[in-house]
Write a structure and sequence with these properties.
four-stranded mixed sheet, about 150 residues
Amino acid sequence: MRERFWERYSLAELTGEEWEALCDGCGRCCLHKLEDEESGDIATLDVACQLLDIKACRCSDYANRSARVPGCVPLTRERVAQFRWLPASCAYRRLSERRGLADWHPLVSGDPGSVQRAGIGVASFAIAEDAIDEADWEDRIIDILSIDE
């Protein structure tokens, strides 16, 4: 990968390897979301997708995730600006909004453990979707993203 590529190139100019390296491994994009049909607000739950390895904060079947989980939306360069539901801490969103990477991001810190120590990763609080009845998901809301943000 090119040195400090995230500062020197646009998202559109990144190689596939660089694009993938932007993922900080927090797992927040793999938490279930609920959309309020009236307001459009997006509620994030502490309930993890069935494929998320919660301890590792990584997809257990990344290559086949879209086929195995119909609601999984692959994050692409062409569509990154549309993903307002990504957490404000997400590298893809931060760079799309020209905010740069956070100090705890592994590309900046040089340490993959910095994500969990900063309290960004979901390993300390996420629960597996099969541990919670879907009827109780509304009780699992941890954040609400207003469409006005």
